[in-house]
Amino acid sequence: MSLNESEPAVEHVVLLKVKAEATEDDIEKLMNGAKSLHAIPGVLTVSVGKVFVEDFMEDRTQGHNYVLAVRLSSKDALKSYKDHPDHLKVIKECLAPILSAPPLAVDWVSPQIFGKK
């Protein structure tokens, strides 16, 4: 792998436990809500998806079945994102109604990305 230099950024990853009874419409609303987060200042990328476990893998999900990953430009951007009305709206309208447990979130500074140029 080669080094792809980039500005330091903040990774914000949220593990979700979506209720088994969540409908396709609920999941579509979650996906659209996640997509809308990209409009928040300082958000560089947003990714959301269903966790998978294959036969050859040990299930280490502890019940988390969806993941939301947001890359932000800085710690200040993360601070603004946390209280941004669009973020709070997604939590209230898209996430809270379908979660069976509180989400688990982690953040870290990611100064470099490794991969092909």
Characterize the structure shown.
The chain has helices spanning 24-36, 75-83, 85-95; strands at residues 3-16, 43-50, 66-72, 104-114. With 117 residues, the chain is of the alpha+beta class. It has a 4-stranded antiparallel β-sheet with strand order 2-3-1-4, covered by helices on one side. Helix 1 (24-36) packs antiparallel against helix 3 (85-95). Residues 10-108 form the Stress-response A/B barrel domain. It comes from Odontella aurita. Pfam families: Dabb. This is Stress-response A/B barrel domain-containing protein.
Feature tags:
117 residues; alpha+beta; Alpha-Beta Plaits; globular; disordered N terminus; Dimeric_a/b-barrel; Dabb
What is the overall number of helices? 3
CATH architectural name:
2-Layer Sandwich
The major sheet is characterized as: 4 strands, antiparallel
Silhouette: globular
Fraction of residues in helices?
25-40%
